[in-house]
Amino acid sequence: MVGSTRIRALRCGAWICAVLCVAVVALTATARSTVLSAGFHRSVLADEHAYDRLYNQVLVDPRITPVTRDLLGRLPVPEAVLTSNLKTVLPPETLRALTDEQIGHLVDYLRGNRDDLRLSVDLRPVIANVTGLTRAYFGDMVSSLQEQREPDFPAFLADLKDAVGQVGAGEPPEGLPSLALTKTQAATAADALLRAAPEDVRGTLRPEVTVALQNGDVATALAAVGPAAFSERTRAAAARLRTAADGGTWDIAADLELDEVRRVRAATHLTLDVVEPLAAALGIAALAALWFTGPDSRPRRLRHLGWALAAGGLCTALVALVILWTVGRDPVEISAAWPESAVRLLDDLQTTAVDRFLAGMLTAALVPVVAGALLVGLAWAGERRKMPARAWRPGLWPAAGATALALAGVALVPIAFSDDAPRSCQGSPRLCDRRYDEVAHLTSHNAMSTTADRFIGPLQDPLIADQLDAGVRALQLDTYRWERPEEVTDRLDESDFPPELRRQITAAVQGLNPPRPGLWLCHSVCRAGAIELVPTLRQIGDWLRAHPGDVLTLIVQDAVSGEDTEGAFREAGLGDLVFTPDEDPDRPWPTLGEMIDSGRRLVVFAERADGPAPWYRNFYRYAMETPFAFRSPGELSCVPHRGGTGKRLFLLNHFITADGGSRLDAGAINTRQAVLDRAHRCERVRGGPVNFVAVDYLTVGDAKAAVDRLNAERD
């Protein structure tokens, strides 16, 4: 009797030990595959598009803009230049690589794979990008300046020193000295110029500078030295960005409070190295004790093992629920002083991380539950095999339930795979019966000028096809022939660039991108960025054919003839897609559904031309617009501009052009509410619905939601 009591007590203790050990192993396995896995953290960042949101939401948030402007103001590049090229200076892939490296270091430290935590970021690629951008805009700023004759070599040398000093300060000199030099004088002048450059690059620059001066080409000599001289300001700015004395490493660990991380590391190290293997060993021993001390019947032993495994899994699930109840989905409290966009991003990251952690824990819990259920099922089947045949009959209700489920599946599966979906136009069934002139379209201003295509001063980030995928249904494109050097200045005089930036771009592009034949999409100057017209039109046609329920509009700022444009569309194979507007601009337009049914879903307007193709109409015969040269959000107005008033189509120019595109201001004016407020105001003032909402940096803010709301309001 005493022996059987001890055995039952041993069996009970073994069962409890097995349950607890199964739960501990499940929990540690979850931690190992989630919070202690670098891949887990990277996938959370990817799921929430953290890097894109950093560029398009956080850095342009109006609440953080003053800090961003102050930071950028310390760099030796104009703010608009740097912000429009932000993804060039700090590419998302570079930021991702830097972040992944720090995640790897932190996880290795927490798992005990390294004894010390070293978090350091190599900023040299970023500094190199800033330097490269600096050179693009300032390095060759002298190449287009007028020369001034000097009477003698001392005067020439004095003026040359003044010029290089101005370039080194980031300012274009007023003029360049000119004098025929002997070889000795050229060498002396080269020495004077090279003193402005860092000592380590003088030897490299000397041959080019000397030859240029011997040939009387002061501009080339100064352009070669200018970037190196100017780089001193870049280096000073980099120092303010916490670069270390070795020239580019930011020691993050030195600026963080790591005591809490060290305590976590001590706990995880103990858990993974001691608790987990001990729990596994004890669990196996407890299950073995259950088996060898169990009843004589093997099915009953299996049932005991099964219940122990299932109970361990259920305990794990219970722990997950307790964690969710006590910690919640936002375990880290974020300061209310942080910008709303940063709070949203961190909240979303926390929520996703907690959800994935709990999902991993529940999955780990499910494994022993399923295994235990299988063992219990085997035990039950083994016991049933010993019963008489007449006692082994399935019940009526289980059979009926299985039949009902099968019938439901037969009825529902065909419906689930049926493509009998309501017709959709422009992404919405409600828009099919709406006339073209009653619909609002998200419009990409200077759609071809993208970061992805490496334009200098881009106004959009994604490629044109990606813009269309993001909801854009109207593209503003600029067509050009590649300009000759003498045409650059004339072209820039007509652009929206400020005078200083015009001079800088003129100078920077002289030695780059020689003229190319054919038709191009450029922003003011093809040498500052260009993509071929015909291949781009083919891509647009491919996108339209892949999206048969969409209507697309092109508004072309045309610097090429209507005949050339017609030829380009014909060569791109778009003749079957272009729509011919009514000759009378006052006639109502067809519905989107009618345009889609006809197959003519590409509307093409020109800012200057009017034909000769019947489908290529002057935009301002049919449309009116607001001004577009706003230098700050406070200047946005609704007053008439090109096209006058009373037209059926209405273009809302909703972007800032202060010293080029303003990514920071886009963060303020591209919000859903800001777009809606201005659209409503302009509709009241101008007496007609807004049809085209043209924005820069369309991935910043949520202009798409505002356009969707405008269309919903018109129901």
From TrEMBL:
Transmembrane intervals: 274-293, 305-327, 357-382, 394-417
Keyword field: Membrane, Transmembrane, Transmembrane helix
SUPFAM superfamilies per the UniProt record, alphabetical: PLC-like phosphodiesterases
Molecular-function annotations in GO: phosphoric diester hydrolase activity
Pfam short name (any one): PI-PLC_X
GO biological process, one term: lipid metabolic process
Family matches, as CDD domains: PI-PLCc_At5g67130_like (cd08588)
PANTHER family attached to this UniProt entry: PLC-LIKE PHOSPHODIESTERASE, PTHR13593
Protein name: Uncharacterized protein
